[in-house]
Amino acid sequence: MLPLPSDEAVDASAFTSLGVSRPLVTAVVQEGYSEPTPIQTAVIPALLEGRDVLACAQTGTGKTAAFVLPLLDRLMQSRGNGRIRALVLTPTRELAAQIAERATAYGRHLPLRNAVIYGGVGQQKQEDALRRQPDLLVATPGRLLDLIGQGIVRLDAVEHYVLDEADRMLDMGFVHDVRRITALLPKQRQTLLFSATMPSEVEQLTRTILVDPVRVAVKPPATTAELIDQSVVFVERADKRAVLEKVLCAPEVSRAMVFTRTKHGANRLREQLEKAGIGAGVIHGNKSQGARERALEAFRAGSTRVLVATDIAARGIDVDGVSHVINYDLPEVAEAYVHRIGRTARAGASGRAISLVEGEDRAYLRQIERLIRMEIPTLFGDRPAEQRTDTRPASPRGGRPQHFAPRRRH
Ligand code: AMP
């Protein structure tokens, strides 16, 4: 149990000046948050006022607390009626579990209940949680529709609606599910939409579900990336594994996420690391929910120092103290690089990202360097002369902010 902070510490907290109520400020001070992050400063007052909000922000910016704190506050202001009054939709089970876990932590001094539902696991436990009359429900779209279809969930008392990672939800093909769920909600409600990017499909969705929203954008990930000490190593394919093992054996590597492009590659790499005496876990989309949770838990607890992951499985995963992100394979989509390296240097801590670049991947590196507008220094060895990247912005003023730029398709 975390110790209770003093009254003075709660009074002096900048969260109090944002209008957050005492029990919630007490909880965030207990969590060790001394200052709200920029997204929290922008979003919390607008949500407390009851406005709709459209926010452009990545995971790692503190966005969960930005919506969970005001949501819990608003739930305390209206009377509980034993029905679901707030719904958070999010694309993956990991994100759903994390949001619910945060809601429990922030709401620990409030008499509110939350429940979380997602697919890929048995339904019974989730049904039991729903029977306990949660005020807040966190859900992935597929399982939510299932349970609505079975008459187990009703959404006609929802007053607050959050669509988290809307761009990703649409990418994963949930657009019809999201529309069906939205149609079941009362028209009179508060709605918040979070998205890391604003492709036109998301813009369209916002027009139909938000009313006169306050628009908030925090610094693009390319700027967040400045906190991270990035480097590249140009390697031959045959040497990649030896270079990775060398990097992982350095004493400063206390907790590392290693990214591969394919599930098969992730499995193989984990086995090879194990053979080399480096204990590693693995998460990817073909692993069962239980196996993923166990691998994550071991990584969180520090019993495995290395987690091998693919992009889909890793996005949104929140583990503090990741000292290194290693791109064993570069991602084919430049934005994924920014998501990956964002697993380190969370909430202002420093971190390192090291990318192994083999011949075939040099074109991907060029795209990444254009996106983040810097040439990444080499960790050791030279940069091949032909691998120079022009990182100047396309227009003299730097063009549109990165996070409103349309998503590149490959
Ligand atoms: P999120 O973007 O919601 O995934 O949050 C990223 C991480 O930042 C989580 O580990 C949070 O616990 C942490 N966090 C959120 N708000 C703050 C804050 N104001 N100060 C310090 N850490 C925070």
Written description of the protein model:
It is a single chain. This protein is α/β, with parallel strands linked by helices and 410 residues long. It is built from 18 helices and 13 strands. The chain has helices spanning 7-12, 14-17, 22-31, 38-48, 63-77, 93-106, 124-131, 141-149, 166-171, 175-183, 200-209, 221-224, 240-249, 263-275, 289-301, 311-314, 334-341, 362-372, and strands spanning 53-56, 86-89, 114-117, 136-139, 160-163, 190-195, 214-217, 228-234, 256-259, 280-283, 306-309, 324-327, 351-357. Helix 7 links the parallel strand 3 and strand 4. Helix 4 runs parallel beside helix 5, helix 8 (141-149) packs across helix 10 (175-183) and helix 17 crosses helix 18 (362-372). The model is unreliable at 393-410 (pLDDT under 50). The structure holds adenosine monophosphate (AMP). Adenosine monophosphate binds next to helix 5.
